[in-house]
Structures are given as structure tokens and as C-alpha cells.
Design a protein that fits this description.
TIM Barrel, M1 Pyruvate Kinase, Domain 3, Pyruvate Kinase, Chain: A, domain 1, eight-stranded parallel β-barrel, six-stranded mixed beta sheet, 35% helix
Amino acid sequence: MRRNRRVKLIATLGPASSSPEMMERLFLAGVDVFRINMSHATHDVARTLMFNVRALAKKYACPIGVLADLQGPKFRLGEFDGGRQIIPGGSIFTFDRTETSGSNARVFLPHPQIFEAIEPGHTLLLDDGKLRMRVIEASADRICAEVLVGGPLASRKGISLPDTILPVGPLTKKDKADLECALDLGADWLALSFVQRGQDIEDARKLITTDTAVMVKVEKPSAIDDLDAIIAMADGFMVARGDLGVEMPVERVPGLQKRITRQARTAGKPVVVATQMLESMITSPMPTRAEVSDVATAVFDGADAVMLSAESAVGQYPVEAIQMMDRIAIQVEHDPSYSSIVHATSVQPQPTANDAIAAASYAVATTVKLSAIVCFTATGSTALRVARERPGLPVIGLTPVHATAQRLTIVWGIHPVMTSDPDRVSDMVNKACKLAVEQGFVKAGDGLLVTAGIPFGSSGTTNMIRIAYVDEDGNAVGGG
């Protein structure tokens, strides 16, 4: 199914969107990838959702991606007397290892890792940052903190530690079970929460027994500090602005969003902008003007995808939210300033043959004014490199590998199509022309550029560019 935009749309599945009928409506409205939030989905629910997505893809003969999002470690307080206390600003508040109900002066903290790692001067954020404290004393069983911003605090609320690198990896016991379930079900992308450093990704990969791609949710200050290593080791990235905006000053988030988007694109790896994009549409059929501008900014920045969370999972208007995102993206991509803005970031190819071919493809197609670029790709790497250039014409990724086609659904501008490997060069060019016509991207008289690797069927060998024109029968002229 051809989309009229290049940025991709991701919808989180939940109570409002998990029926096959609603999933089909969301797909027809513009969803390219469905997200299964393993924080809330049981394994049986995840299995049903995956079955429904694959059935939908089969019905429309169109790849649809699945992103399984792991919960990651969650740090929560113990219980308070009466379930809730008012913590006075300016007071001293204590976290300890004593399993008794808390007061307005202390509470049980059931996480020994925090006591191990925290130091005086570190910041503590409670209840999504509504309360703020600074550590003045820390030991193996007691943390004393000055309350900088007080207020009501309920039992089991979350605690965040933006200054502290905790001695824990991104995968809890629950996450490891959820990871195994996601791999068994054939998820195309696996999102890791709570990544603090590049080493966390390497540790997680040891448990991944398939070629499922790893997406890192950038939501910790420590991840920003080690961003270069994380960019190098991950397959994709999510700017998780909700948690990032809790653990860092909110005014820093827009700049970080642009930085992560730019670095990911330079590395030729997809980046997703997520959280609160159309938050008001959870209960309203129309977004605020600020939300429209927020989505538009992500599109102007060249993000590969934008994502809905609660809007599609539990919202009252999931279809309308996707339709709105679709309309915003199309409008932005047709804006006269779009090309100059998205290409303001210069992307230099790496000194490899594959990168040189991708950069040349973009330059040739633009100079000759062709109608499409067609990439034969087994692993998806050629299509990723071409997409990194953000060409102003369609990019069709032809692959014989189902997993590759489904992974490419999240990548900017790529229209993935399943097909067998060609037998020879003339067959390759004719197949590219016929499929481009069938998919509605070119017509008789149009020209297209074809990239592939010789010998066929060998991954990582992109070494050829051909230009061909389409005749009245959809065959190649001048491309054999």
C-alpha cells in the first residue's frame, strides 16, 4: 500500500486499538508500524496482537512492522500511612531499608542498587518530577535529602535519579521473559528502556538469538553522555521525551531531540520521535496548535517516524489521531521550505563502496530528474544508506527476505516490497521497472535508478547503478 508521505507512523496498541477491526482501520488511516508495549501486554495478549498484525499484512500483501517495547527497570517507593503524605518543602526527607509504612519524613525504598550508587549532591525526582530533592547524606541503608520542591506524594510512586549511574542493566527478569516472547513471536524491532551506556546494548544482544533489530530509547542523562557509543551499537533510536523530560530540564529536550535525530541520520540509522505528540487527542477529536507544530517539527527535522502512545492505546479517537498525523506529515513534506530544511544537515558518506553507491544514487537521480530509486537489498543496508540522503523522490526497497521488508517499514521514505532475487542484470532492471509501475510510483516514459549487488543474493555487495526508462508495457528501455 503506497503512502503519500515519507515519514512513517507508529501506533501503540492497547484497549482502544487491539481488535482486528480497529487495527485495520488504523492501518488504512496510515499506520506503518504497530507498537506492543510489554509493560502492559501479557504474553497471551502479545501473541494475539502479533497474529492480527501478520494477518492484516497478508490481507493487504503489504509489510507491516512490529515494535516490541520492553519495560525496563522501574524504581518505586514503598507505602505511606494512609496511602499519601504531604512532603514539606525545605524539610529533610529520609529513604531507608525499613519495611514499615512511611510518613511525611521518611519512606521505605526497596532498591538496594540505589543505596549502592547514590552520592551526596545527586538529585532525586519523585512522581514524574513533581517533587525534587537533593541528597545531603548517603550510606548503605539510609539516604537523607533536602526537599527542594515538596508536595503530595502517594505510595508506590516512581523515583528517578538523573545524576546517578545505577549498577543495573536495562533488562529485568520480566524484561528477559518478555524479550524471549517477542523473539518467539517474530517482532521486527525490540525497544530497550533504561539504557545508560553503550555496554548495556552489548549485554542485551547476548540474549537476542534472532536478527531482530535493537532500538534504544534515549531517556537517561547518562545515555546522552555516552551517546556516541550508543549510536554506534544500536540499530535505531527513540527519543523518549516523556522520561527524558523528567530526568533533565524540559527546556533541554527540544535541542536533544534535534541532536539525536541528526546523529542517528548521520549514522544511517532510523530515529523515532515519541511521547505526547498529540496528547490532547486522548480525549479530544482535535489536537492543540502546539501539538501540530510539535509533530511538524519532527518531520522537518528528518525523523524517520513519529509515534502515538496513549493516543492510540487508550484514547477515544485513535483513528482520528493517525489521520491527523498523516495530514500534518503530508503538508510539511509539501511545504516549499521542507527540502532546504531537511537537507540543512549535511550527511557525509563513509569511505566505503556501499556508502559511495548510495550517495551517487541520490546525486544521479536528482541530476537526471528520475522518478524513483529502486534498491535490491537482502539486509536492508543499501536502502538505509539511500534513505539517509533524504532524496526527494520515492525509494523502493526490493527484498526476498520477509524480516528485512518488515524492518524497513520504520525507515524514512522506504517503500518495502517482497520479491525474489533476479537471475541476471537485464532481469533485475525489468523487474524493478515492472514493480515500480505496479506499486504506482512510475508510468510509461518515466526514468528510475536501480542499485544492486553483483553477484545477486550476496549481502553487503552493493556495487552497481543502472538507469532505465519505462516503456508502455512497463518494461525497461536502456537498462539492459
